Amino acid sequence: MDSEEHVISALLRKFRPEVDVVTACRHLKAHDDYPSLLSISETFKAYAIDNAAYNWPFERLHELPLPFITYVTTHNGEYMIVTEINDREVFLTSRNSYEVPMLLDSFKLIFEGTVLVLEPPEPGTALAIENTQPSSLIEVDDLPFQVTYVDIGASYGLPPKWERFAQHPNFMLLLIEPDAGQAADIRLQYPNAMVLETGLSNLNEERDINITASQSCSSVLEPNMDVLRRFNLEKWFTVIGSTKANLRRFEQVAAETGLHVPDFIKIDVQGFEYEVLEGFGKLLDQVLCIELETHLLQIYKEQKLFFDIHKMLYHHGFFLRHLEQTGSFLSEAVEFNAYFVRNMHGLHVNAQAKITFWEAVNNLPPAKTPRA
User: Fold this and answer.
1) Quick check: 147 and 166 in contact, CB under 8 A?
2) Within this chain, do residues 85 and 230 fall inside the same structural domain, yes or no?
């Protein structure tokens, strides 16, 4: 998720919970000046949230009403939400994390002076645009069959594109998160979901988790500073501690809990995706669609790269459907969301319908057909 989408989604949920955030993000991206502060500002105004941008001195940040949006220099430039300020710390949320504290002295180094201050709408204020799904998006009612969705590394909850299905009776949701505190938060956020407090791997083992300065970069694997320094990212990946975690093969977890084999899998485990997939064993041959984060460079030591994952999934009957560049690695293409689907040849019509549904929710580009 881009940082522009994050601030729109998070603050609309706070101030305009009736608004469909996926629709709002579509309107945001359709703006002529996207990505920009102007596109964020005018999207909020379209949903009757007045706002104003200022070039604001750091020393007077405590005078601003909370929350507000600011532009910072991390990850080659991104927008964050400031939720609290005290004499020592500022509390931020970004596209990759829960609310996290940062020392004011550290924040001053990345703060550029631009802020967007919001004015919460009065109750009952009408929307400036229609709160409906664009015709290209699939509707909640378009789920006539049962699907099982597994999110591995679910500390930040479901992606916005899947949020609208969380309460649907045909949407079987399994969220896997090893951190006890985050797993507890997820249970509160998704009361109808099954939440497993465990990590996944290709072995049943206890491993150290490297805790990094930016929580979202923590991993079983050790950050590869030789690569990260090329992109000025080393301070976010600096290891500040470690914790023990029990990792298990998914096929064993499924056998013990009676879980359905998932139709759809999403994996974001900071360089450990290959090992997680190996832990599915023969169950992987029954999965229909996979979305995962992958890299072309080893940002973690001993990390399996995109081509390793592609080779493994190809042998399990998947093909690469789409690559979506993500991350901030200067101008180099390093990080991607990769979308894999099972070859439809010979699949039951219900399985084919599920794949079509998954492609529509992810808004993947139409498949090209051969010319006659």
Assistant:
1) no
2) no
